[in-house]
Amino acid sequence: MTRPLYLVGGLFSVGLGIVGAFLPIVPTVPFLLLAAFCFARSNPEWEQRLLDHPQYGASLRDWRTRKAISRRAKVTAIGAMSVGAAVTWLTLGWPWVGLSLAILAICGGWIWTRNE
What we know:
Blueprint: H1 2-22, H2 29-42, H3 44-51, H4 57-66, H5 71-91, H6 96-112
């Protein structure tokens, strides 16, 4: 019963990861990590395909084995969140920019403190 649910969760996560590959504010790798987790419990062949992916596989394997994020990925993620906060400030203003800045501070701080 849980296997089909993990499969649906994995497919949904891959879909969100694909959206994140094209939209700068939506992350990609966290959704692919969730997809790999779900596929490990539902379809190990698809999990292996994610781990072997030429662009995202190394990031997924680094996180799985060492809980590490590359410096380039850290800078890119924090930069994208900063751009998102700036766009929020320019379009919505206060108090919404406060929410974006809080997300930047909390998530960006967490990302920056991970292993490289």
